[in-house]
């Protein structure tokens, strides 16, 4: 099957032309470039709007392997990572272009499964897939996705808007994806080889799902934008620590997090204890949770939380912002001991290391 036949095999009859037209697609897959009627896309935004553009790449052996991801999961997650970036701006995802570099060993049917996962994510979030590029690869599969979105003009949520005295929040538990990755990497090969079912047959299946099929927080981002109380926003892709530092540096202030307030799932705690890992390590530095972290006007945090709950969404206040040079600090649990073995005083703070996933870190 040549390049063009492969593309048709992966993408044909996936999305009705009438649906793509409603999403603002004038010309989709089949020409040298897509043509988009962005202004008339049915995206729920009235009045002036701005175009958002995000891009993300996943590389085999860096972001995924056969041990940790099914082919369908790879496609789903490649698009979901971009959806999360649009969500972090308060926007609505619209159009995707997909570039794949495919090793000969993959074959057309395996790549079709990758596209099955990608289109599953596209269907969930109302995204029109409008084109891309295909090349061969000598060894590893690479998939890059660029995604457009729309947001009300001038209302984009940024990292740089936090104000001293804000409440710091997250829109869901953190550390789940990192725990799931650890579980998948350390599970016996017989539990995962040859396309066997994911580890859904035990109490840790939710951790595996968090890593393989993340759920970007689009509705949460829209609620935060519409509330008018959200001052800054970021998505947790590289770890809560890394994203908190980005907010602190962009806004020029200090974030103070409280360990007792960090949302932690029971499955995460149980699994961490079973393998001798401090769950806080995954929660702060794990990444790929794709929940949102940001700041809101402290006086309005309760009303924002109530609005989230009306939509069936979680919302956790986990700290506050303070004036001062950019920094991220953590108030540990009261039972935490200091380096000498003595109980730390009430309100004691520790500096949160500026680390998380970094492709060029040492």
UniProtKB/TrEMBL annotation:
Pathway: Cofactor biosynthesis; thiamine diphosphate biosynthesis; thiamine diphosphate from thiamine phosphate: step 1/1. Mg(2+) 5 binds at residue 238. The keyword Acetylation does not apply. Substrate binds at residues 63, 288, 357. ATP binds at residues 115, 132-133, 159, 237. Mg(2+) 2 binds at residues 56, 85. GO terms for biological process: thiamine biosynthetic process; thiamine diphosphate biosynthetic process. CDD domains: ThiL. Mg(2+) 4 binds at residues 32, 85. SUPFAM superfamilies: PurM C-terminal domain-like (SSF56042), PurM N-terminal domain-like (SSF55326). Its EC number is 2.7.4.16. Keywords: ATP-binding, Kinase, Magnesium, Metal-binding, Nucleotide-binding, Thiamine biosynthesis, Transferase. Residues 30-151 form the PurM-like N-terminal domain. Residues 163-325 form the PurM-like C-terminal domain. Mg(2+) 1 binds at residues 56, 133. Mg(2+) 3 binds at residues 32, 85, 235. It catalyses: thiamine phosphate + ATP = thiamine diphosphate + ADP. GO terms for molecular function: ATP binding; magnesium ion binding; thiamine-phosphate kinase activity. Reaction mechanism of ThiL seems to utilize a direct, inline transfer of the gamma-phosphate of ATP to TMP rather than a phosphorylated enzyme intermediate. Catalyzes the ATP-dependent phosphorylation of thiamine-monophosphate (TMP) to form thiamine-pyrophosphate (TPP), the active form of vitamin B1. Belongs to the thiamine-monophosphate kinase family. This is Thiamine-monophosphate kinase.
